[in-house]
UniProtKB/TrEMBL annotation:
InterPro entries: MFS (IPR011701), MFS_dom (IPR020846), MFS_trans_sf (IPR036259)
GO cellular component, one term: membrane
Gene3D superfamilies xref list: MFS general substrate transporter like domains (1.20.1250.20)
GO molecular function per UniProt: transmembrane transporter activity
Subcellular localization(s) per the UniProt record: Membrane
Organism annotation: Coprinopsis marcescibilis (Agaric fungus)
Protein name, entry field: MFS general substrate transporter
Keyword terms of this UniProt record: Membrane, Transmembrane, Transmembrane helix, Transport
Length: 496
């Protein structure tokens, strides 16, 4: 990859590829010539709010169903699945873990496909696939059957989370995206709360239709996913320039905002950008930060029902008591996302959130009373859940160009999700679960250390780019000269 100060003529004059530029010049029906100089900040915010109402509720519902279908194995376990399928020893841990291997491996190919295929086709299609797998899991009555079902569930679910994160980056500026990712990711915390409540109700269907209560959890939640996926084919909007809910003037405002925010980066698909993203060391710094967060996040979703039950509560009450930690995490996720965007800061919020979560794990590790331990469980969720949205916004903002960004997000989310394999095997020694809590603290410490490194390094790179611009008289008029080199452009600025 070429470095600033040594760009070749070939790099500066590379030909445009035949791929569609999704943030191109407005069409003749989209108020040609309408630029940012003609609008106020109030106009921009009005259009952003309109997009929020048309995009966020539906994609949040999609992710809620995704997280619900992935994590309901924890609710099913204490609803009788462990006894009926004889999940002794490490068998439950294996069933939980196998999901994450195909889930991680399929995320990068899925995001590349999303760049080449319309979102309104790709995302509903993979939803139909995992909804069918989820529904048919109700027929699994053996350990081997559950393993096979979870493998296929991981494979089919893989594209949704990185796909939606990438999808949002095609609609919103870098400074606006954290709160939107926070809103959509908060669906995961709602899923944790709703999953416990739903499992509490569904478990009472035990014996109906010859199925156990835990089998009905899989069946009903899978059917709902299939029905929503069918509606998604008609409800999803692909790109700002094709959105029917925007009038020509609003469409032009969004396109102009995105072009300004792109900092001159190329929007077209080229394999060069795929390899640039894969070989960029900054991608793996973000991977490490995200991995450190995912181990506690998946531990919370997979084992909170078990941890609460081990505090001395019945299985039924444990289902209900899993709700408050997730509700608190949901509220914190949205608040942190809003203030992260407002202050244009990412790293400090990650460090602060990880610290709060570590305090929760320290309480769980050291305290024996049920009340104190439950308070610790709430703090773990309140601290770590908000960090996910901030890190994804951070990773996306450090990438130049759509393809580069899509690959970075898929790599970060894909490799990071391997943390779910670790999460599946660390909660083995009830009732105190010291190895599990200690492991989560270690991974949170890693996220803190790498976040501090990223903030320092991005600050250094910004200063370097500013110096190059001054020395070589590079200004905004030369954005096109550097569009092929992504975040190596001297005009590129990293979010701290």
């Amino acid at each position: 990859m070429s470095k600033p100060g040594s760009w070749s003529e070939k790099e500066k004059q590379s030909k445009a590829s035949s791929s569609v530029d999704h943030v191109g010049t407005p069409s003749s029906g989209s108020a040609v010539g309408f630029g940012l100089e003609h609008v106020t900040e109030e106009d921009r915010q009005r259009v952003l709010r309109k997009m929020d109402w048309h995009l966020l509720p539906f994609i949040s519902l999609l992710y809620l169903l995704s997280f619900l279908d992935r994590a309901n194995i924890g609710n099913a376990r204490i609803a009788g699945m462990a006894e009926d399928v004889m999940l002794t020893g490490l068998k439950y841990n294996v069933v939980a873990a196998v999901f994450f291997v195909p889930y991680a491996l399929a995320e990068l190919p899925s995001n590349v496909a999303l760049k080449l295929v319309r979102p309104s086709i790709w995302i509903p299609s993979i939803m139909i696939a995992w909804g069918l797998v989820m529904t048919l899991m109700c027929l699994c009555n053996t350990y081997e059957g559950l393993i096979i079902a979870r493998v296929f569930l991981g494979l089919t679910e893989a594209g949704l989370f990185p796909g939606i994160a990438f999808y949002l980056s095609l609609w919103y500026r870098r400074q606006d995206v954290a709160r939107r990712i926070a809103i959509f990711f908060s669906a995961a915390t709602v899923a944790g709360a709703f999953g416990g409540l739903l499992a509490y109700g569904i478990a009472h269907m035990d014996g109906i239709g010859g199925l156990h209560g835990w089998q009905w959890i899989f069946c009903l939640e899978g059917i709902v996913t299939v029905l929503v996926a069918a509606a998604a084919f008609f409800c999803m909007h692909d790109y700002p320039e094709t959105a029917t809910f925007l009038n020509p003037e609003e469409r032009a405002i969004i396109i102009a905002m995105l072009k300004e925010d792109s900092q001159g980066s190329d929007k077209e698909f080229k394999m060069k950008y795929v390899w640039d993203a894969i070989l960029d060391y900054k991608t793996y710094v973000q991977v490490g930060i995200y991995l450190g967060l995912l181990v506690p996040v998946y531990s919370i979703s997979l084992f909170t029902p078990t941890i609460v039950r081990e505090l001395g509560y019945s299985s039924t009450n444990a289902q209900l008591l899993t709700i408050p930690p997730f509700v608190a995490g949901c509220i914190a996720t949205i608040l942190v996302g809003v203030y992260s965007d407002k202050l244009h800061l990412r790293g400090p919020f990650v460090v602060a959130g990880c610290t709060v979560s570590m305090i929760g794990y320290i309480i769980l590790y050291t305290q024996t009373s049920a009340g104190a331990s439950y308070a610790g469980a709430v703090l773990t969720a309140v601290g770590v859940y908000p960090c996910i949205a901030v890190v994804l916004a951070w990773a996306g903002s450090a990438a130049g160009g759509d393809t580069f960004k899509g690959v970075v997000l898929a790599t970060v989310i894909g490799i990071g999700n391997l943390g779910g394999v670790c999460s599946s095997f660390i909660y083995l020694h009830p009732p105190r679960f010291h190895p599990g809590h200690g492991t989560c603290m270690g991974f949170l410490s890693m996220s803190i250390a790498l976040s501090c490194f990223a903030m320092w390094k991005y600050n250094q790179l910004n200063k370097r780019n500013e110096r190059i611009c001054i020395e070589q008289n590079i200004d905004e008029s030369r954005r096109e000269d550097f569009k092929d080199i992504g975040n190596d452009s001297p005009l590129f600025r990293f979010t701290i």
